[in-house]
């Protein structure tokens, strides 16, 4: 009987565990936290509001494989996410669309063709080789005025770096609309698990071949006890004994406040791009899936920080150079039965659907079809 250890009971680890358990493997999962579901973990607070402990998670995908896979473990509530930005008390849609430009730039754009003309007149094309950093991406997409108002300050607060220092991929994630579409994502499937992510992950690991141990961190002496290991934690933590430079991660600090009012802000998420506020956004979870909690609401201000649980790999040239050293070690260890999967293990800023797909593909590779 083949025994496998999976380090981390987040969405990547849970996907691998379920896939291998159904193929007859005996799975042990360990998690250093006191709960399952990783950064997707959600719970009802004292006001009865379902909220994410580690920041909002909005599921969206174009992957038929991922969408079909997740239907097995949860019912889903359609949810097309909307975001507003706020500068000096003025709200505007995020991502940038026609209304955003009219509000922030004092224009009177009335059609998609006019919006395209405005962008063409105000943007700064990249060089022949394409964008080399995130500032160039933003200037090429929205131009200097909107870059300064909407993107620059928010990016600095989020990453503690100028957009010039960050890879193009950071701001390439942000779409720009040439119409009035107020929705944040454009994927074919957009929904939230009806009972929350924790319930979904619990269903994924509910299998007789899976055993879970919480508050149990990985140590290298565990390796000899298992035939294979799938590791989903930070790759530099796994190789800490090698003495390489540490990789940079951004974390979040949350300031939670429950108020005796029905609603605090127009939508569940309002971003604050100005450097006048030290927080990046305010999340009002009650507005997600229109939760019915009369007379009370909970808001959470988010502050980006270098300290705390690692959330986001920091995509700079320096970090990519350091990661390549860890990646070389990981590739060697794969031949010895240790596999690195997930956002932290692969040092890649995955969306949830991409993390699930990467986990499914890791199983495909482990068990050739």
Structural class: alpha/beta
Tally of helical runs: 11
CATH H level of the largest domain: which superfamily? NAD(P)-binding Rossmann-like Domain
Number of strands: 17
Distance between the termini: 20 Å
What's the alpha carbon Rg, rounded to whole Å?
A: 22 Å
CATH architecture of the largest domain: 3-Layer(aba) Sandwich
Oligomer designation: single chain
Helix and strand pattern: EHEEEEHEEEHHHHHEHEEHEEEEEHEH
Q: Which whole number gives the mean pLDDT?
A: 97
Tell me the strand percentage band: 15-25%
Looking at CATH, which topology of the largest domain would you report?
Answer: Rossmann fold
Task: Give a summary of the structure in a few sentences.
The protein is α/β, with parallel strands linked by helices and 369 residues long.
Describe this structure as you would to a colleague.
This protein is α/β, with parallel strands linked by helices and 369 residues long. The protein has 2 domains: 3-79 and 190-248 and 315-366, Rossmann fold; 83-172, no CATH class. It is 30% helix and 21% strand. The protein is built from 11 helices and 17 strands. The strands form 4 sheets. A 7-stranded mixed β-sheet has the order 8-7-13-14-15-12-16. Helix 1 (11-21) packs parallel to helix 11. The longest helix has 18 residues, at 317-334. It starts with a strand and ends with a helix. The model has no long low-confidence stretch (mean pLDDT 97).
Which key terms come to mind for this protein?
369 residues; alpha/beta; Rossmann fold; 2 domains; five-stranded parallel sheet; 17 strands; globular
